[in-house]
Amino acid sequence: MSKTVRLDQVAYGRSGDKGDDSNVGIWARTPAGYEVLERELTPARVKAHFAGIMTGEVTRYELPRLRALNFILGHSLAGGGSGSVRTDAQGKAHARGLLFMEIEVPDDFEV
Amino acid sequence: MAQRQPVLVGNGQGFWGDSVLGPVRLVNEGPLHYLTLDYLAEVTMSIMQKQRARNPKAGYATDFVTMVERVLPRCIDQGIKIVANAGGVNAAACAEAVAEVARKQGVSVKIGIVEGDDIMGQLDELMAGGEEFRNLDNDEPLKNHLDKLQSANVYLGAQPIVDALAQGADIVITGRATDPSLVVAPLMYEFGWDINDHDKIAAATVAGHILECGTQSTGGNFDGWRDVPDMARIGYPVCEAYPDGTFVITKQDGTGGLVSTDTVTAQLLYELGDPHAYLTPDVTADFSTIELEQEGPNRVRVHGIKGHAPTSTYKVSMAYSDGYKVLGELTCTGPDAAEKARFTAELLFARLELDGTSYDDAQKTIEIVGTNTACFPGMVPPADSYEVIMRVGLREYDKRKANRFGGELASLLLSGPPGLTGFAAGRPRASEVIGYWPALLTKEKVSATVSITEVRA
Q1: What is the chain A residue with the closest CA to B393?
Q2: Which among B9, B111, B135, B333 could bridge B34 via Cys, Cβ 3.0 to 4.6 Å?
Q3: What is the ipTM metric for this complex?
Q4: Angle between the B159-166 and B181-191 helix axes, to the nearest 10 degrees?
Q5: Tens of pLDDT along B22-35?
Q6: Predicted structure pTM score
Q7: Chain B interface, mutation test: which of A70, A75, A82, A96, most B Cβ atoms within 10 Å?
Q8: φ, ψ (nearest 5 deg) of residue B51
Q9: Is the distance from CB of A75 to CB of A54 less than 8 angstroms?
Q10: Which structural domains are found in chain B, ordered by start?
Q11: Which of A66, A87, A100 sits opposite B265 (nearest CB)?
């Protein structure tokens, strides 16, 4: 059995810009949390979550020793750099955005 | 070689515009051996380029000179060396400004200047030799944009900084040096590491990455912010480095902030691409090998880092003129604030169209700040707020058209829905957009130079 929690109960995040792409680093608060992240945060789900702001693809990298996943959100900054007129032209809020995602954890998972 | 163990490197500047308190406190609160300062974001080079175009003696981080004024006597007295990429697009002018400070203060100092990153003058020759400078993001060759090009700088590595230190420099000023190289160089110099010792250079590069954004590794911009003590006096990160390539990230005693495996992980992931291949001119570092260990309060031990040979190319950062942008804001208040804000944005463009000025939809940005549309459209249900900000922006290549937009904003207060306010910033004006053009260049085609300016008191 599983229960639904918000990602920020399981993980921390930080994001920033790389040209017109942003990167979103998410890492688990506990070792058990990393398994949850690996299972729940598929590139397809992350792409769907950010569908409103990005036009490219999502690439996921795994860093198990840091209990972390690193996502590249392709073309998510409306031009990026000094050209974007978005409030968040550098993707600094994208980690906060992903931490709102609802995920499934085992019933006995402590948050 | 100096023989300090461990070597203490602190970074007091995460970008141009960061607080001057960082470096001043690192020096005054000690102990410290090297003070590094990172001033150059990609956007920063564009800004400095504009400044040098207006004034040939400008184009560097002026904050650096102000900072040096406050710490120079103590740095010289304590043997604290300074390594900074404050030179921007005019390292020589920056060094001269620092020399002037030393003369006024009666302090003897050797200033190392690292140049050779500016390849603007060699571009024609390089392109004639077959270099295309294809854009790393979209593979377009540079030749289509050559007429709008404003600057071209190579990201240099650690070796020329090491050379400057070996020549006795107390302060090393570089132009576009890679951020982590500012930390790699002092460790190479102190421990006598060879640039081909890939694991050690990778470790130093990781240390540089952790330090390069200042307080972002000591509790700033961190989700556990409620647990960060005394954030007002947040300490800047210090790397305590050992000759075997391991290091401890910490901060000075008595400072606020937090150094934990979480705050360090946060910074490791910042602006990270492929973790298996973190590319700098010095090394290819594998971030997936990094091991963190909390060895005490505010002390995180970092070890296990592996590296490989660097690539045969330098990254080139080029800036080109890419049209204009303009941005206007109004605050919308009262019931139905968000609905009124959207209505107002449409009204603005409808009025402009009546006067014969229309814009491509793809170039417009409309955000209703306060309804979660600015950063997370569609993710969170809009808040029911009685005040939101209508934020309307444009990208436009025609400057006249960009400026026409600003002329219709204020009148909306009298001719739009009720409750509009917040026109304090005045009529928005178009500002030039500097485009960023990342490319690669074979290393052999670039020669970094080191020179020394000496001031004797």
Answers
A1: A85
A2: B9
A3: 0.97
A4: 50
A5: 889 899 988 999 99
A6: 0.94
A7: A82
A8: -65, -40
A9: yes
A10: 7-117+155-311 (no CATH), 322-433 (3.30.70)
A11: A66
